[in-house]
Structure formats: structure tokens, C-alpha cells
Design goal:
Elements lengths: L2 E4 L4 E4 L7 E6 L10 H19 L3 E6 L6 H10 L3 H18 L15 H13 L3 E4 L2 E4 L23 E2 L11 E7 L14 E3 L3 H11 L3 E7 L3 H16 L4 E7 L2 E3 L2 E2 L10 H6 L4 H10 L6 E3 L1 H23 L8 H19 L4 H20 L5 H18 L12 H15 L3 H13 L2 E6 L2 E6 L10
Parallel strand pairs: 3-4, 3-10, 7-8, 10-11, 12-14
Antiparallel strand pairs: 1-2, 5-6, 6-8, 8-9, 12-13, 15-16
Helix pairs in contact: 2-3, 4-5, 5-6, 8-9, 10-11, 10-12, 13-14
The protein binds zinc ion.
The site of zinc ion (ZN) has 4 residues, from loops.
Length: 472
């Protein structure tokens, strides 16, 4: 049984989807006013781990991630540059898709954009007006939180102090200023607007997620994710809008990941500790090492990003890759052993048990590294057989369907022309044509391949590209 911590109940709960075997998942996507930073990626990678694990467990997952391409921040950005909103956001939308590909994040089934769902938002607002949950004021339309008694159930906000009738127009605000929030903002000088049945204007930020989630997943669905920053006001407002509109429970499980800090401090541009993915790639950081780092802290703990932890993540990842190189390149005797089969079975169980326990990634990774340690002893004792090595390779790649930290398999074996050269050299040696054998060895060395002759035959090793160190 899979268990998750549900922010709504504040408890660990067994996971039961609405339809057996199928999970409907909504994750709040990027606001495309800038490049995504590593804090954003912490959330996206936690969501990716969740989704990949559910798929690994046999669920069909339907995943929707919105793209916020109209809100206070995008409008401000476009106005600062004096260009159109679409022209401004296009660049960051493209960058977002490049970035998630680079981080091995499995794509969502739908990426609805706010600006392409304005009319559906208008429809929902019309119903909210009709049902009395929303009201007009000076051309804008607000949601009346007093009309929705369950307001605060996600963020556990205390509404006693509230003064009724106060309104807030900005898309983001603190708990202390919980007030009636804008569903629709009146047309304003210097802002894009749409001519609609409810008047000219543009949507507030929160309404888009209520509208686009129900359009693609239905009025009630299984899991909604985001960072803890989203709990209030964004997700609280989503619940209010959606449940007031449909009369149904909006989402069964709310999963939120914690903050990312840099060197123990909140990331901020003014402190100079603010990193987008692109900043790190410019420093030659390996994206899969970064993915490993972001993945390896439990999602409900604060993740402290440092260049030291990044180097550690890089070394851990190298350990897995080195192990795979060994399995690929050594020549083992024919056969298969029960011990390795049992080790694989045991590791698989621990890996699944770990992740089933509210995505306990530490348990899952410990199981993997324990397998590597034990299998290496097996190799050293010359007990590893050919079929064992094959079983281990395919097992590790099956786990990587969840972790997604390994480069494609072809990069772990050698290109065929190199393999052919190794064979040619073997043949030359057997025929005692040592000069030819040596020449081929030299050629391979230039390609970065070292050959070792052992009693089991020839082994190859890729010379490590100089040890990578990432520094601030
Ligand atoms: Zn959202």
C-alpha cells in the first residue's frame, strides 16, 4: 500500500485513487516571466519522482501542468521591456521545455496555458456570481471567502481576525492579508485585457488552475502538488473556487514539497545565491548530478543546496555508473547464481517499500547502494556470472525508470566501431601479431579507452574525464 502525507488532513494516509489503476495528477506549473530556478526544479523533480513511481507501480497517470502566461509578474515583465505579453512569455515557455528535458523530467500529458482558457474562466466566474460566491466591485469580480465556510481548511488559517468586505487584488499575498480575492480584474491602463461577457479585463491568477484542472481531469481528482509556498493563498483559493462551483470535493490528496535553501539561506537575487538551471549549466554542472541532488532529500524536508552536496551527488552517481561499466565490460564466466537473484529481489522490495512510505527516497537509495556494495564483493570474489551481470544491468535500469538519473544505456556501453577494434586487437594477440595489437591499443587510448588484459580476457575502461568539481 502506498502512503502519502496529505496536507489537507495533516496526516499520513493510504493512497486510493478515485478510479482503480488510474491516477489523475495536477501540478502547478511555471509562471513564465523568467527562467526556472533550482527551487522550482526541486518541486518539478519531486513531482516527477511521484509520477514515475506511480507508473512503476502499475498506475496509469494522467498529468496536467499549467503554464501561467498572464498574471501580475508576466505583465510587469512585458511592460518593463515594452513588448507584448505573448512575445515576452514565448521565450520563457521555450526555455522551460528545454530545461525540463535537460533534467530528464517526464513530460505531462497536457500543458494548458492560461491565455488559451480565458473563456472557460469566464464561464466559471459567471456560475460563481450566480451562486452568490462572487460579487462585483468597481469592474472587478471577487470571491467572497465568508460565503465559503470551509475556507482555510488546507492552510489551517484562522479567519477569526478577518474584517469582512476587505479585498485583495494582487495575485500573491501573505496569510495575514487573507481577504476576498480577485477572480477577474478590471481592464487597466497598460495591461492586456479580454472583452468578455463579464466585462473587459483579465483573470486573477488562482482561477486558471481551478478551470484547467477540471477541464482535463474532471471536477474531482486524485492528487494536486506544488511547493509549500503554494498552499496559501493559491491552493486555498483553488479549493474555494472549485468546490463552490461544483459542490464536490476538489482534490483527495494534496502533496507539497518544502523549500530549497542555498548554503542554509533563502535564495535571493540580492544575496547573490540565486541560481537558475541555466546558471549552473554555465558552470559545467552535470544536469543529472543536479537531478540526483534535488531528488535525494525527502520532499518534506528543507533541501540545502551547496556546491559540496552537489559534488557528493556527482560522486554517488559516478558510483552507480562505474558499477554499470564494470558489469558491461568484464568478461564473466557463463552461469547464473541464486545469490544475485535473491539480492535483486530483496533490493527491489526495499526500494518499493521505501518509496511507498511517503516517497522515502533515502530508504530507496540506501537499498540501491547496498546492492552495489554487495555485488562488488561478489565480483572481487570472482563469483559473478555472465547472467548475473545481465540481470543486474537490467534491474538497475528498471529502477532508473523511477529515478531517471542515468544517461541513456548506449552511453554506458561502447560504440560498435570501438567494440570492433577491441575484437580485432584480441584476434591480433591470439595470432601473436603483437605490433598490430599494440597499435590498436594506442588508437583506443586516443579515444579514451584503456584496455586491461586479465585472465578472463580483455577488459575496457573509459578513462574518466578529469574529475568534475563544481565550485561556486
Ligand atoms: Zn496552480
Amino acid at each position: 500500500m502506498i502512503k502519502f502525507f496529505n496536507t489537507l488532513s495533516g496526516e499520513i494516509e493510504s493512497f486510493l485513487p478515485l478510479a482503480p489503476g488510474e491516477v489523475k495528477l495536477y501540478t502547478c506549473g511555471p509562471t513564465v516571466y523568467d527562467y526556472s530556478h533550482i527551487g522550482n526544479f526541486r518541486a518539478y523533480i519531486f513531482e516527477d519522482l511521484l509520477k514515475r513511481f506511480l507508473i512503476f507501480k502499475g498506475f496509469k497517470v494522467i498529468h496536467v501542468m499549467n503554464i501561467t502566461d498572464v498574471d501580475d509578474k508576466t505583465i510587469k515583465g512585458a511592460n518593463t521591456l515594452g513588448i507584448g505579453l505573448q512575445e515576452y512569455t514565448k521565450k520563457y515557455i521555450e526555455a522551460f521545455f528545454e530545461d525540463i528535458r535537460c533534467m530528464n523530467i517526464a513530460p505531462a500529458d497536457h500543458y494548458p496555458r492560461a491565455t488559451e482558457h480565458i473563456m472557460e474562466m469566464v464561464e466559471m466566474i459567471k456560475i460563481l456570481l450566480k451562486k452568490g460566491y462572487a460579487y462585483r466591485k468597481d469592474g472587478s469580480i471577487y470571491f467572497s471567502i465568508a460565503k465559503f465556510p470551509a475556507y482555510g481548511k488546507l492552510s489551517k488559517i484562522d479567519l477569526k481576525e478577518l474584517k469582512p468586505g476587505l479585498r485583495i487584488d494582487s495575485d500573491e499575498y501573505e496569510k495575514e492579508s487573507a481577504h476576498d480575492f480577485a477572480l477577474w480584474k478590471d481592464k487597466k491602463e497598460g495591461e492586456p485585457f479580454w472583452e468578455t461577457e463579464i466585462g473587459p479585463g483579465r483573470p486573477g491568477w488562482h482561477i486558471e488552475c481551478s478551470v484547467m484542472s477540471s477541464k482535463y481531469l474532471g471536477q474531482a481528482f486524485d492528487i494536486h502538488c506544488g511547493g509549500v509556498d503554494n498552499i496559501f493563498p493559491h491552493h486555498e483559493n483553488e479549493i474555494a473556487q472549485s468546490e463552490a462551483y461544483s459542490g464536490k470535493k476538489f482534490v483527495n490528496y494534496w502533496l507539497h514539497c518544502h523549500h530549497l535553501v542555498v548554503e542554509g539561506e533563502k535564495m535571493s537575487k540580492s544575496k547573490g545565491n540565486f541560481y537558475t538551471l541555466r546558471d549552473l549549466l554555465e558552470k559545467n554542472v552535470d544536469p543529472l548530478s543536479l537531478r540526483f541532488l534535488l531528488l535525494s532529500t525527502h520532499y518534506r524536508k528543507v533541501l540545502n543546496f551547496t556546491f559540496e552536496t552537489l559534488n557528493q551527488a556527482h560522486s554517488s552517481l559516478e558510483r552507480i555508473k562505474d558499477f554499470l561499466y564494470e558489469l558491461h565490460n568484464r568478461s564473466f564466466k557463463e552461469g547464473e547464481s541464486k545469490d544475485i537473484l535473491a539480492l535483486i529481489e530483496e533490493t527491489k522490495q526495499k526500494f518499493i517499500d521505501g518509496l511507498s512510505d511517503d516517497l522515502n527516497i533515502s530508504l530507496a537509495l540506501t537499498a540501491l547502494f547496498e546492492l552495489i556494495r554487495k555485488a562488488n564483493i561478489f565480483i572481487a570474489q570472482e563469483k559473478m556470472r555472465k547472467k548475473d551481470a545481465e540481470n543486474l544491468i537490467s534491474f538497475i535500469h528498471s529502477l532508473d525508470k523511477v529515478l531517471a538519473i542515468l544517461p541513456p544505456q548506449k552511453e554506458i556501453t561502447l560504440p560498435t566501431e570501438i567494440l570492433k577494434k577491441i575484437e580485432e586487437r584480441e584476434k591480433a594477440r591470439q595470432e601473436k601479431k603483437y605490433a598490430l595489437a599494440d597499435r590498436i591499443r594506442q588508437e583506443l587510448l586516443l579515444e579514451g579507452i584503456v584496455l586491461e588484459d586479465t585472465k578472463e580476457g580483455v577488459r575496457w575502461k573509459i578513462i574518466k574525464k578529469e574529475e568534475k568539481k563544481f565550485e561556486n
